[in-house]
Amino acid sequence: MRAMKDMGFKGTILTYAKETVFDHKKKEEFGLGMNMIPTNGTSSTECPYITSWKQGTLDTVKLLGEEDQLAVKITGVGPRVTCALADDSQPPQQFLDAVDEIVRDCKARGAKILIDAESQRFQAGIMRIGLDLMRKYNRDGYAVVYNTYQAYLKSTPTSLTCHLASALDDSFTLGLKVVRGAYLATDERSLIHDTKEETDEAYDSIAAGALQQQLLGFGGEDGRLFQSVNLLLATHNKHSANKAQKLYRQRKEQRLPTVPVSFAQLHGMSDQVSFGLLALNKSDDAGISVYKCSTWGTMAECIGYLSRRVLENRDAASRTTDEYKAFKTELWRRLKMGARL
Length: 341
Hints:
Structural class: alpha/beta
Largest sheet: 8 strands, parallel, barrel
CATH topology: TIM Barrel
Distance between the termini: 35 Å
Oligomer: single chain
Strand order of the largest sheet: 1-4-5-6-7-8-9-10
Low-confidence stretches: none
């Protein structure tokens, strides 16, 4: 993690991989890594799944430094919590107390909390938990807690509009993490945009709207007041990253209102995007923050994460071609510099 900061990254995002995935086609839940949790040594009122998840997450928090981030998979807590999430009902108090302790520890370290998006069976409940945490902890003019908004979902504009209204009405900073979405193989297909182009447009529209402080009826001459927003753009798409950073830099240069923005890519993926963004930081003072995200856990706990990466990497050939071209250009540049010497 120190090496990442030495390379210019603002910090590292760490994720404890344990989760529950709901397969819409099979109508089944898969608690990845749950069978490894010991049930002895706990009281009758204490859920061992929650205890194990809390400990694994707090162990992750101990690795974080200032400016690092913790990505949390709520469904890793186990069946008592996933049942509550699926019903959009109140989770057990043991879980709520655990989450509070985790957020307090992160805030004390100067780290942020990213509530990961997960299977749609659980997502409404996950969003509600994230929003409640934002109301409690995002009170100092910046976001400690972020919710994750999936651009490939047709319902995301509606959800985001409601959350922008809540942030305005309750006077807190909205932590807005934007992803395209990674549960295409298991979620109900009708909930998702019909084409990749529609998803790309949705992603870029949210990013641009937030950066211009004109988003979904908030901001602008005729809109509601645009409340405080902190933006995190998690993307491996070079075009989306470049468009967003260009717009952000333009608004900073022209002294136009914008929002704090960070970018994130997975560790070992899309390094050309990551280092391209870092290079811009050396050329101007726009202050773009770039993160790399690392996921850890046992093999059983990481299966869901690894499976999604396989699907996501169907377009890896095009990215590899781009990176190969960039590598050749840089190698040739260095060879020419050596020849001059």
